[in-house]
Amino acid sequence: ANQSLINGSTESSKKKKNKEPKTPLSGLKTKPDTPLPKDKQNQQQKLNGGVIISDIKVGDGAVAKPGKNVKVYYIGRLKSTGKVFDSMQKGAGFTFGLQRGEVIKGWDIGIAGMKVGGKRKVICPPNMAYGAKGSPPEIPPNSTLVFDVELKHVN
User: Does domain 23-154 have CATH number 3.10.50.40?
Assistant: First the structure.
């Protein structure tokens, strides 16, 4: 009798969580390998400089900390059009020193704290990306950029 009571309360709490409004990112095609609990999936966090992150999948490996070298796979899109301007999704990946000024500020802020195996959406406003100059011809001036990042390695 106790088990059905526990299952009943679990199901009713799941139903309540499903009634929460969907985030603007919940309609994207990204399919996580291991879904996060409903209350954590696609939950947005606003960080310094207006960088917005949402974890698609939380990794279980080493943590990306300032000063460490990290290797990522990524897809970069313009928020305004959804057009892919850059990607690296196989092979050696892209390696850089975290928070050493080697990449745009939005990456230094948005990738910190990820764990190897994790996937995260990182939204970089212009001041945390390429700013008023952009990066012609792919990235127009004052562009907000959206990255799907997978952390592959930390050392």
Answer: yes
Strand partners, 44: 54
Asked if the model's pLDDT at residue 17 lies above 80, the reply is: no
Contacts of 2 (CB under 8 A, 6+ apart): none
Residue-wise pLDDT for 73-82, tens only, equals 999 999 999 9
β partners of residue 40: none
For residue 115, count CB atoms less than 10 angstroms from its CB and return exposed for 0-12, middle for 13-18, buried for 19 or more: middle
Report d(CA 135, CA 123) in Å as an integer.
17
Burial of 32 (0-12, 13-18, 19+ CB in 10 A): middle
Each residue of 37-52: pLDDT tens digit?
555 556 899 999 999 9
In contact, 145 and 84? CB cutoff 8 Å: no
Residues recognised as catalytic: 74, 85-86, 104, 130, 147
Question: 128 or 11: which carries more pLDDT confidence?
Answer: 128
pTM of the predicted structure, to 2 decimals: 0.74
Residues 151 and 70: beta-carbon distance below 8 Å: yes
